[in-house]
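Run Carbonic anhydrase through structure prediction, thanks.
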Amino acid sequence: MLRRNPSGHMPTVSKKSFVDPTAIICGKVIVEENVFIGPYAVIRADEVNEQGQMEAITIKKDTNIQDGVVIHSKAGAAVTIGERSSIAHRSIVHGPCTIGDDVFIGFNSVVFNTQIGDGCVIRHNCVVDGINLPNLFHIPPMTNIGSEEDLGNILPVTPDFVAFSASVVSANHALVKGYQKMTNEL
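Sure, done. The structure for Carbonic anhydrase is below.
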């Protein structure tokens, strides 16, 4: 469901993307082409800053937002999710936040007030809060990271995780095409 926010902004969604009918996209949200937004996802850009302004939540092309994901932003701050990225089931992305290209964020993870570099893999049940994560970092399952000091124990992404991330993106591209075809048949 696409909804206007109290400021009057309406989402902009590419016709080449698929939004599940149970998902809610509200306000100043931009969804580029070939994006999959799964069941019960909520993407809500409706808070304003002290000047009454807000930045957009932008989901770039070839990205997938899976079942039950919540994306929101505090005080109108921007959220940008890069190309070919995957936000897995029931994760929360809360702005201000920038997620690079080719990023995988695992099930039930929380990302807040942070920048995540290109090619990072954040596994399931992680919290990444208030840090700039450089390119190609791998955050192991159930890790909480909130300072530069925490990064000293983190290893770079391995080729296996790069391949896994690419396979998730590919599977969701097929879903976009499949669901669009079904919609056109009805």
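The chain has one helix and 20 strands.
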